[in-house]
Every structure is written in structure tokens, then in C-alpha cells.
Automatic annotation (TrEMBL):
GO terms for cellular component: plasma membrane. It is a multi-pass membrane protein. Pfam families: ABC_membrane, ABC_tran. SUPFAM superfamilies: ABC transporter transmembrane region, P-loop containing nucleoside triphosphate hydrolases. Keywords: Membrane, Transmembrane, Transmembrane helix. Residues 33-313 form the ABC transmembrane type-1 domain. GO terms for molecular function: ABC-type oligopeptide transporter activity; ATP binding; ATP hydrolysis activity. Residues 323-558 form the ABC transporter domain. The chain crosses the membrane at residues 32-57, 69-89, 146-165, 171-190, 260-279, 285-302. It is found in: Cell membrane. InterPro entries: ABC1_TM_dom, ABC1_TM_sf, ABC_transporter-like_ATP-bd, ABC_transporter-like_CS, P-loop_NTPase, Type_1_exporter. It comes from the Bacteria. This is ABC-type multidrug transport system fused ATPase/permease subunit.
Amino acid sequence: MRELPRSDPGVADHRSAGRLLWWMVRRVGRELAVSVVLGVVWMCAMALAPALIGIAIDRGVAGRDLGALAAWSAAVLGLGMVQALAGVARHRYGVHNWLDTAYGTVQLTVRQSARLGAALPRRMSSGEVVSIGVSDIEHLGEIIEIIDRAIGAFAAIAVVTVIMLGTSTPLGLVVLIGVPLLLGLVALLLRPLQDRQEAYRTRQGALTTRAADIVTGLRVLRGVGGEALFAGGYRAESQDLRAAGVRVGRVGALLEATQVLLPGLFLALVVWLGARLVLAGDITAGQLVAFFGYTAFLVPPLRTLTEAANALAVALVAARRVVRLLELDPDPASPARPVPMPPGPAALADPRSGLLVRPGELTAIAAADPADAAAIAERLARFTDSEARLGDVPLRDLDLAELRSRVLLAENEARLFAGPLREALGGGAVEHALETAAAEDIVAALPDGLDTEIAARGREFSGGQQQRLRLARALVADPETLILVEPTSAVDAHTEARIAGRLGAARAGRTTVVCTTSPLVLAHADRVAYVEDGKVIAEGTHRELLTGEPRYAATVTRQEG
């Protein structure tokens, strides 16, 4: 077999969940076609077995012809061997297609995650990404694997119907009408099952995200006594997820019961009609045995068809989640022909909010809704496309790598990398940056100081320590313009005052933007822009805005309280 996974999964059609599934089918088209042929041979061999057994009984047993009995018995044996070989080969191809689809989906999602980069956590929760990688890929593989069995089941039912119509028209018509009717009744349960499964998976992703957040900040939560509060929230959400799982289970159990009950009733009807036809002399004893064999045989194909319908419903839910991930756009890229960067320090402007950041100043953005300040910061750093400008040049016209070297956005979601702390902070002389970030005590407590190996994401540090180290790393980079989003939200007031008093001096001559509503930081800003509903509605010093803008005063005094 071909080695899995493939080196390149190709370009997926993610315009809709249905198109994505069809793309997956076409992707394994050759192997799937072979698997379908084998599935038809496998199922039809099973379908023909009762007919051969019936002929052997009529000609060999009832006719007392040992030669005919031996010949038809050999035919049954040969048919069984064909069935066994086709079944083994079909299973091999089916598993191959399952793995190819599952691993191909993994490749697609990993490639898209790498393409999105830092934009991924802002666009989709970690829980949903984990859910796609853990469960959705399995469901997408299952729908591809079951296609050959479903088509084989249809072919086998068709063969049985033709044989029955040729032997007895009433029984043939019962099968011809009964099978679509049974499938229609089962299909009524698929839509409610699909809706409940989608709701369950959404809750599952949200709960996984909450669990990851709690684990990440466990030390901080214990330090402030919030562990029990967040654990209670997780407990409540987990109970909601359990209840949603029970609702899915109820519909699933009803579907499973229907798959057993309806085919069972249908087969009982076929046997009853066949027995009446034997009593009337319309069919032979061998044909009765064949009909009985058909009734037993029809159970697996009918269950396979209902299983395929259920797998399709689940796969559509999974495909929608993958489509949502594949539809996400990464942070803006460099233009094909970038214009030259403005020479020297230049002002940053965000026309959407009306903010102008003058070069060389420490500008603070205080927003009634912190999300508005974060959105402005992303536009100023061109993490999202907008009309923002550096000097007179739109950011979208600049080379992105050059812009990143001059304008740095430091977010609280940024992580520390594993390795020596000095390297995690950017290397070189970091002592001054650590002093500005009030992080000297962190390094002093480490066994090897800056040469201490730290874990991925800085898990050995508390939330406040991680925040101070991230600030030090941003200061080490020393960009022309540094944009900080809530850089002191996780530290105590004493430490925050020290950082606020040192930041301006450390960044003297450079442009600094701080998104915060902390009065301690705002008091040290050269200029404060107050934002409501995404617009700058007042500017001035912290003291001027406190006395002249009641809405600003209400926003920042809430932080003091």
C-alpha cells in the first residue's frame, strides 16, 4: 500500500461542508473506486448465496440427485471464497481510505494553523481546534470508509429484489417498496441527531478552552484564591455538556432501536408472505429456504444504509467545523510591490478611531470597552487590514517584515519559548529591560539566573511574572514604535507603579503606545486618548481628562475601586 500520509493533501474546496466532503471523495477517487467494486462483489456474493442454496435443495435434496447436490454445493463454496477474498481486500482499501482522509484532514488543519500563525488564537478557540484534531477527523474518515459498504448494500438489495421479483412478484414488490420506506422513516431522526451533535461539539470546544485556560493560570488562581470559583464554573459547564451528551444519546439510542425494530418487522413480513406462498404451492421448498436466507441477509445491508446515513449526518457537522477553520484568513501579507518606508520616526494614524500617535511620545489609549483599544492596537500594527498609516503611507502598502521591525505589538496572549531564559527574552543585554519591567526579582530567584532553562510557555512562572517577562522581551527588541496591550493587568499595584515610573524613561525618544485603564500607568503618559464605541472622543493628559471628561473619570476610577 502507499505510504501514509501523503506529502501534500492538495487544495481543499471549503466553500461548504458538502463541497468539502465531495473534495475528500475525489481525493481518494481511484482507491475508492476499487473499494466500491470490491464492496459490490462482497455484498452481492452474500446476496446470491441463498439462491444457490435453494437450488441445491430443490435439485439435489428434493430431486435426490447426488451429482447436482455436489455441483451446487461446490458453487456455494466457490461463492463463499469469492466473498471472503473480496471482503478482505475491501476492508484493506476501506481502512486505507479512512486513514488517507483522516491524515489528509490533519495536514489541512495543521497547514492552515501554521498559515494563520498568531492570528489563530484570536479567530478560533483552542478548544475548537483541539476538537477538530481529536474527533472531527475520525468522523470524516468514517464517512469515506463506509461509502463502499453502502454502495455494496444498495447493489445487494437490488440483486435480492430482482431475484425475488423473478421468483414471486408479491414478495419482490414488498422488498422494492419496503426498503425505501424503511430508509425514509430512519432519515426522520437524522436531522435532530445532527443538530444535537453540533450543539454538543460546540459546548465541548468551549469547555476544552476553559480547561486549558484554567491549567495555564492555575498558579495565579491559587495565589488569588480564585481556584474554587473557576473550578465551579468548569463544573457547571461540564454538567451542561453532560446534559447535551445525554440529549445526543437519546436520539442516537432511538436511531439504533429503529435500525433493529423496523428491519426486524420487515423481515417478519417477508417470511410470513413466503410461508403463505409455499402453502399455496406458488414456490418450492428450496425457494422458501432461499427466501428465509434473504430475510436474514437483508439485515446487514439495511443496517449498513442507516449507519451510512448516520455517518453522513455526523460528517457534515465535522466538515462544517473544518470549513470554519479553513475559511479563516491570516494576518495581512506584504503587498506585491511595497512602497518605501517613511524615513525616520513617523506618526501612526488610525482613521477609523481618529487616533494620531505622535513620534517620540508615550501615548495611552483608555477605552470604556478594552476590546476597542485592542482593536486599535491591531490596526496600528497591521495585524488586521485597515486604513491605518505610518506618516503619509498606508500600512497596507508597506513591506510587512520592514513594518514589523519598526512597529512591534506586544500582546498578553504572547508566550515564552522553552530554553535558556536569556534566549527566551531575545538574548543580548537584557538587564536594563528587566529593571524597567520590575522583573529583577524573578531572575534572582532562579538557580542559574538568566541561563536557567525554562519550560514552554513559562509554565513555572505565575501570571504576573510571565507578564513582566513578556514586557522585558518587548523592551529588549527596542522597536521604533512599541504597542503594549494591558502590560500590567496581572501585577500588584506596587509593581505596577514601579513599571509605570520607569517605562517612559526607558523609552525616551521612542514612540510607545499603551492600551490600559490603570490610573498608575495613565498618569505617566504624555497624552491619553479616551475611546468610546471605537472612536476617540477626548484627548489630553490624565489629570486634564479626570477633571474635564466625566466618562473618562468613571472608566479609570473603576479600576481604582
